[in-house]
TrEMBL record:
Source organism per UniProt: Aspergillus calidoustus
Annotated transmembrane regions: none
Descriptive protein name: NAD(P)-binding domain-containing protein
Keyword rRNA processing attached: no
Keywords: NADP, Oxidoreductase
Gene3D superfamilies with a match to the protein in the record: NAD(P)-binding Rossmann-like Domain, UDP-galactose 4-epimerase, domain 1
InterPro entries, sorted: NAD(P)-bd_dom (IPR016040), NAD(P)-bd_dom_sf (IPR036291), NmrA/Isoflavone_reductase-like (IPR051609)
Pfam families according to UniProt: NAD_binding_10 (PF13460)
Amino acid sequence: MAIVAVASGTGGIGRAIVEAIVRRGKHNVKILSRKANDSLADEIGAPIIPVDYSAVGSLTQVLEDNEIDTVISSIFTMPVSGIAPEVTLIRASQPSRTTHRFIPSNWGVPLDKSREDLAPSIPMKLLALDELKKTDLEYTVFYVGFLLDYYAGPSIKSYVSPLIVVIDMECNMAAIPGSGNMPIAFTHSLDVGKYVDASLDLKKWDASYRIIGDKATWNEFVKLAETMKESQSVFLSTFGLLFEDGTFDLEEKGALNNLFPEIGALKIKRAVQAAMNRV
């Protein structure tokens, strides 16, 4: 059994990883966060340890005190002033007597210095890898493609923040880049968590691992969405007919509402008010 620390494990991919580890129960997992949160820790089922990412020494002490063998980072990799938190975490893991493994926060695709001008996060990810190469930690990088969470909708649980890219499912719009014929790998964060949890069983890691939930070109993705919308339209048109011919105008006489008035069914006004409060 490994004792694992997930940095930034209270949300996003980090939380998906934590919950996967907790669910299978083979390894012990703890969350590193800037703030303690006992109620959230109880909800997730893993302790939240407050840490200072600006102090290497105190981070090392936290890792040793909690006997952390493996560190998994899901730290947001945008530029920051001073030393990047993930770099500090790597530097703290290196001297820790208990820590031997590290997974940096990539969760995307393989990138090199020729691409570092494309996005501010890329140099930060490369910086973390350069820092790991200076250590004797065993490490691996996970490449998962593009997150399917952005298109799965609220019916499939996700802790990843919403992002509209290429296809806007809600507004039935798409802006396809290029030809739209290049295959794209898509993986849901919950599946990422399961594979990362499984990889903790491996005695030796490869330098990197790929997780491919599914593949499609953007044109294929749009076609699939259109097909699903057409099927939904046929289904909804049936309701339209039934709405108009009075089938849904149920007889109020003898309704259970009258027999059990104390239950107090939800009214339309209250439902709409609740929906508006979410906007």
